[in-house]
Design brief:
This protein has about 80 residues and is α/β, with parallel strands linked by helices. It contains 3 helices and 4 strands, in the order βαββαβα. Helix 1 links the parallel strand 1 and strand 2.
Length: about 80
């Protein structure tokens, strides 16, 4: 299963540069991609997340999650 992070605006550069298997990062400005079979998180638009019946994170929460992912990927790559 893959994780699709959908940002309301432009995808922050550090998210675009994060390389992790199964992670897809897109902007809603590009249109709504296929979400079937994916764990989806909408960033910054709770109404849309509720409408699509997917996960939601605020911009602050997604930055905390980014730091967690970066640290976890660092541990995996150094092992």
């Amino acid at each position: 299963m893959s994780l699709l992070m959908l940002f309301r605006g432009e995808v922050p550069r550090h998210w675009r540069e994060l390389k992790a298997e199964g992670l897809e990062v897109r902007s809603l400005a590009e249109g709504l991609p296929e979400i079937g079979g994916k764990f989806v998180v909408v960033v910054g638009d709770r109404w849309l997340a509720e409408r699509l019946r997917v996960g939601y994170m605020s911009e602050e929460e997604v930055e905390e999650f980014f730091r967690y992912l970066k640290e976890a990927l660092s541990r995996v790559s150094s092992a």
